[in-house]
Amino acid sequence: MSESTKRSPLTTAVHGGEPRSYPYDALAAPIAQTATYSFANTEELIHYFEGRIERMEYGRYGNPTVALVEKKVAALEGVEDAAAFASGMAAVTLTILSLVEHGSHVILFADCYRRTRQFVTTFLSKFGVTCTLVPPADVKALAEAIRPETRLVISEAPTNPYQTVPDLEVVAELVRARRKERQKIYSMIDSTFATPINLRPCEYGIDLVVHSATKYLAGHNDVLGGVVAGSEALVSLVRDQRHVFGANLDPHAAYLIHRGMKTLALRVAQQNASALAVAQWLEQQPQVRQVWYAGLPSHANHDVAKRLMTGFGGVVTFDLHSDLKGTSAFIDACEIPRIAPSLGGVESLIEQPALMSYFELSTAQREAIGIRDSLVRYAVGIEETDDLIRDLAGALRKVG
Ligand SMILES: *Cc1c(COP(=O)(O)O)cnc(C)c1O
Question: Which of 84, 191, 294, 309 has the least CB density, counted as fewest CB within 10 Å?
Fold first, then answer.
């Protein structure tokens, strides 16, 4: 183990992947705001194309500020390489596209991110890629779903809104066993909710880990971005797709994400502690029917989460003894969290899934897919825990 891999995530978040000095002796990372790069003369150009020198060529193929984001994510995940994209969905879709072809079969847990599911079930199916959705965290069903033509197994942890955590050691082992038999199959995980502070999936044998950097990595609700991390061979496969699709992270957005990541470990530690306290407190309240948080012993995947993760993240889901209107009144009575989709930033955010992601459905249709009108998703920010709980207590009093 090298010196730097023994370091705490607190230190890696600040220094990971960075050179000791930047141009002009600047301490902060420079924003290389350029679309292309110039060559001193034709000889340099020839040397570059002969692979004798390493340098940048054109903005779609690389940018130094974007590369800093990639190196820091790779350092935090403890892997060889990472590639950054314009959004989390660009990272997810291009990673999947890199690993499948016509005739391939993909397996995903049914509660993975809605747009990922949409991409696999409706978009990829147009190109002859089939898929199987297995029940949340059900690794037995996953094992049974694997076929000779299965190329990719997609996990997510913890999931939205019910915070399921599949046993990633089992997932990785199932995939690796098939690979030993020369099947071209890989595992990937959307680890956005966990962050590399709480979970490093590649340590358990998962091949590729994807993040929406929009959430915890950037952490300030002010920028979109995505990353994929893993072995150099697999990441460069995905990076090559970026050359074609052009879903590049902008240098200025990269700067914001890189700057945000400096405080990632601090922020996530506070969010872990607050979310756990909020979840424990909510579980004691008579107005609350149920709480879903993988850090609670009452959660179905608590034992798996405890074994794999060092913290359980900042999102708490709960259900009130109330209806659509009463739940909206509770949300409106909260004075600290803002009503917004997304999570992982410094500001606490609150939402009623029935009115956010599932607005087009009727109450009955929502119940059929397990989304009650009284469900609330609370994405804890970095405010003082006691302030958040006092605020929730005040709002709960209005539910009656
Ligand atoms: C937000 C999110 C995405 C999509 O990321 P964007 O940056 O919005 O494109 C994917 N997966 C999960 C789990 C997310 O929360």
Answer: 309
State pLDDT tens for residues 107-134: 999 999 999 999 999 999 999 999 999 9
Confidence of residue 1 (pLDDT cuts 50, 70, 90): very low
Average pLDDT of span 338-351: 97
User: What's the CA gap between 316 and 173, in Å, rounded?
Assistant: 30
Distance 260 CA to ligand 1 centre (A): 17
Q: Based on the structure, what is the number of domains in the chain?
A: 2
Residue 88 predicted with pLDDT over 50: yes
Structural contact between residues 165 and 137, judged by C-beta atoms closer than 8 angstroms: yes
* 163 C-beta closer than 6 A to ligand 1: no
Q: Are residues 100 and 237 in the same domain?
A: yes
pTM listed for this prediction: 0.96
204 Cβ closer than 6 Å to some ligand 1 atom? no
Query: CB of 192 closer than 6 A to ligand 1?
Result: yes
In whole angstroms, what is the distance from residue 218 CA to residue 53 CA? 32
4 falls in which pLDDT band (50, 70, 90)?
A: low
Q: Which domain holds residue 222?
A: 4-261
Is 81 touching ligand 1 by the criterion CB < 6 Å? no
Nearest alpha carbon, ligand 1 atom 8: 88
Residues 372 and 307 placed together within one structural domain of the fold: yes
Check whether residue 182 and residue 37 sit in a common domain. Answer: yes
Q: Which burial class, exposed, middle or buried, applies to 7 when counting CB atoms under 10 A from its CB (0-12, 13-18, 19+)?
A: middle
249 and 106 share a domain? yes
User: Average pLDDT of 215-244?
Assistant: 97
